[in-house]
Amino acid sequence: MSLDANSVQRAIAFAVVIFIVQGVARFVWNCRRRSLALKHLPGPTYGWLGIIDALRRRQIHRSATEWANVFGPIFRVRLLWFHAVVITDPELAREVLHSPHLDKLRYLYSFLDPFLGGTNLLTGHTDAHWKAVRKGVAPAFSAGNMRHAFKHIVERSGVLTGILAKSGPARVMNMDNLLLRESMDVIGRVGFEKEMGALEDFMEGDVGSGASVDVMLRCTHEVERRARQGPQRMLKIWRKDVRHGYRLMEQWQCVVRSLLKHMQLGTPGKGTFAHMLLRVKDPATGQPLTDAKMLPEIAALYFAGIDTTGHSGAWTLYLLSQYPEVEARVVAELDALELLVTPARPQPRELEWADLGRLTYLQAVIKEVLRMYPPVGLGQIRVNSKRDLILAGGRMSIPAGTALWVPHHAMHNVHHNWDRADDFLPERWLEAGTEYATRRTMPAEWYRGWAPEAAEVAPTSDADVAQFSIQADATGTTGSTASVGALSMPAGTTGAVPQDKRGANPNPSPAVPGLGNEIEEAELGGRRRAKRYFPFAEGQRHCVGMSLANITLPATLAVLLSRFSFKLADEMGGPEGVLKTEQYTLITGMAKGMLMNAVPRPGVAAE
């Protein structure tokens, strides 16, 4: 029996319709399944679009902190059809971030692809390619290479102090931009053996490489807009700002391509990023990385090395300008080490490598700044798209496709993890082990019978989902409780504490009801406490270049603060203006930079 053409077409059309209907039904079922499994968790109220309004906030990183202070260490949110469990309990966060069954939620990181040129060390899955690149570049950040980088950091910091001295105290300087330029020069030298000259270009009107700092910053703003507005933004090419965004991305890619060309034309020194990248073998072919795969890795290393330290340095100068008593202690430490410019010591000795270990209080200041303003404030988001995940020794079963979000800003600033969380207190870091949790956020029974870092996948993707019921008062009022199975936990506090005019609360943070259960060493069984502080991420995806940042920040700040005191410029509108301009793009930064006056210390010679 033969079939005519129309019958075949109808059969094909029917099959396509069935396929689409099945796909939609499966999608709806999975969304409904996740929603039912998580409905007993506390969380903010929102419309059918979910937390879409939070994405419109300039300070999106602060949203999770505000929610955690109300709803406690475990709560749920939804954005469109994406469900997420937000975790600020240190033990559970450790289990999630060290789990081999979880990986990055690729969709969220895909917005970086046009900027970085494709998947890379920052945005890719933890697959064979990622492991090959990570293993290949890690030696570039060895102790020996960092000692080599140190001299370049000190030299570039000296150039920056010269610019400030020549400009004079009356001139308003964008310290965020200048510190980004210094970082660009350092990364260019130690990573690629290329003179970027970004600081010199500042004095010459940005006719050279220094202009790429502004291109980079504008690109990060464009990435943030695309992530906030969705992929449809990229289709609106009739809009002038969208077309400008495409041009910015191409300009940045030109900068990255110039670095690749520089690498290929020369012979990169041993230990540089360039040298290590050229030696990486693609696990799929056994050959060196192609240009198409090399470019995203160059872009990621270059960008991450510049943006993180530049913005963090600016936040440090800002907080010191608001806390003169803290600055005075930093100055006293520099003076004791004979690094401070004074009338009796107009030419102090040059900063040495060994001084980094002696600058105890300055290091404490930097750690406190990174606590309050973690670079990647949005944090780490993990997912297992195929299998349900069992956490906390079986107490929690997370449906496949549910994101697990560990927000860094919230981890660092919630009241259930820190005493006086809203206060700028560098002194807290003078005690060893401050980065580790000192108390439980849940009752002791919650932690018994399960080992951190032991997350498992459910036997099948259709495993029953335990509806662990955390039923909290939706208002998050003080004293309300929630249960996980038969256990009870505090649902939250009275909410976020308003910041004072300097950006922190001078009064102690309110006590979190039901907490204060100190962790006893005997309970740990030889294990370390879980971390509550990880400014450079945690788990195997922690920042490969954090050792460079941990040298650049104290060295640069020591050189600057030995010669200048920094005052917030009137144009910033005081601390209230700084808070308004604070924003999260790819890093916790500021929309208009950090405008300051650099006032020479007594003894600094006028240029």
TrEMBL record:
Protein name: Cytochrome P450
Essential cofactor(s): heme
Residues engaged in binding heme: 543
Domain of life: Eukaryota
Transmembrane segments: 12-29
Region of interest: Disordered: 492-516
GO terms assigned for molecular function: heme binding; iron ion binding; monooxygenase activity; oxidoreductase activity, acting on paired donors, with incorporation or reduction of molecular oxygen
Similarity comment text for this entry: Belongs to the cytochrome P450 family.
Record organism: Elliptochloris bilobata
UniProt-listed PANTHER family: CYTOCHROME P450, CYTOCHROME P450 12A4, MITOCHONDRIAL-RELATED
Record keywords: Heme, Iron, Membrane, Metal-binding, Transmembrane, Transmembrane helix
Entry keyword annotation includes Iron: yes
